[in-house]
Amino acid sequence: GYSMQWLPVQVCEQSPAEMPHKKSNTLLEDCHTTPLWMWKELITAYPAIAEKQVWDPFYFDGKSKSLMEEAGFLHVRTTKGDFFKNVDKWKDCLIVSKPPFSIKKRIIHDLFIADRPFALVLPVVTLLAKYFFKGFKQKCRLIFPSKRFRNEDVHIGCVFVCFKCGPSKTLTWM
Questions:
Q1: Residue 139 in contact with residue 131, Cβ under 8 Å?
Q2: Measured between alpha carbons, how far is 117 from 54 in angstroms, rounded to an integer?
Q3: What is the DSSP string of 102-135?
Q4: Which of 79, 46, 57 is nearest to 166 (CA)?
Q5: What's the mean pLDDT in 17-42?
Q6: What DSSP character marks residue 33?
Q7: Rounded distance, CA 57 to CA 55, Å?
Q8: Strand 149-150 to strand 155-156: parallel, antiparallel, or no bridges (unpaired)?
Q9: Hey, is 63 helix, strand or coil?
Q10: Does residue 17 or residue 96 have the better pLDDT?
Q11: Containing H/E element for 173?
Q12: For residues 106 and 126, is the Cβ–Cβ distance under 8 A?
């Protein structure tokens, strides 16, 4: 069987400019909006996603909806609030988001338990994590963006992990 123990977590409620500037600060990686080019590459790899009802539950600065729409998504919902209390809302929506990396393990777990389709931007190293490798690898499709997620504070290799959705190939390189 598969089981997890949960530790207390902090969710980012401040802008990157207000945060301590340490490369090792996990919260620093939590609080960045996915850039437009990444959303465009997701649509290029999986065109049908643009027409789906999508929900980005990790609001951060509120820019994700406009960026996703600019990339070509037609039906985007964003919300503020506690994801873990709202995971069962909007069952008609595909969850498309970059979740806070510091709590990705719990988010992935809860989405699988709820059997919710998703396309999440996650660090590539997630694919090597024991919980992912043993529990979920056979159930997902992967889309590797053409470059790393970058801004002034964070440079990290990411992958779109798709569950119950995604391109017909299990692995897609952009």
A1: no
A2: 10
A3: GGHHHHHHHHHHTT--EEEEEEGGGGGSHHHHHH
A4: 46
A5: 64
A6: P
A7: 6
A8: antiparallel
A9: coil
A10: 96
A11: strand 171-173
A12: no
In the DSSP assignment, the letter for residue 35 is P
Reading phi first (left if > 0) and then psi (alpha if -120 to 50, else beta), residue 143 is in beta
Rounded distance between C-alpha atoms, residue 11 and residue 32, angstroms: 12
**pTM of the predicted protein model:** 0.79
Q: How far apart are CA 98 and CA 154, in angstroms?
A: 14
Q: In Å, what is the CA distance from 69 to each residue of 50, 77, 86, 110, 135?
A: 9, 10, 23, 27, 33
Q: What 8-state DSSP symbol labels residue 99? A: -
- Give tens-digit pLDDT for 42-96: 999 999 999 999 999 887 788 889 999 999 999 999 888 888 888 787 888 999 9
Tokens of 173: 């390189």
Q: What is the dihedral of CA 106, 141, 64, 53, to 10 degrees?
A: -100
Q: Which residue has the tokens 């990705």?
A: 104
